[in-house]
Design brief:
Layout lengths: L1 E4 H8 L2 H17 L5 H6 L1 H8 L5 H8 L3 E3 L5 H22 L10 H20 L2 H6 L15
Antiparallel strand pairs: 1-2
Helix pairs in contact: 1-2, 2-5, 2-7, 4-5, 6-7
Amino acid sequence: MLIDHVDRHLPAAGSLARAAVVPAMYLAWCGNLHLLSPAFQEAHGELLTRLRYQDLSPAEFFTGVTDGAIHADMLSGEGRAFTEHYYPEYLSDFESVFGDDVYGVKDDWAAYERIAGLLTRRFMTFRDGGRRALRRAGKGAGRRWWQVWRR
């Protein structure tokens, strides 16, 4: 399943380098959080290590390991589940972090850190499954975790 491709961004971005930044930041974040499939990690281990040491920019990593696209089989089970749930909102979140000119974002680690914080919060909320929201609302308050279903 195709998740994103630079061709979707190219008309608005104006250049391949600018079009690659949006999906590149997401794939780099997946790589840093170990949300890539074992086969993908094995096939691109050296470049993934360089990414994690910030020896490559997110777009350099993206163009080095993909054909310009993010496919579901590149992701681990958890990465795929989160991406299917969240990715339709990603561009909107990207705009909220960087403003209207999403294709003017620099391909560097400072920009990555700005979007990575939001992605991680979204991921932790997804992973948590709303349990924190229930606790804040008082559901299960005063009970041990194994007694939550009791009334």
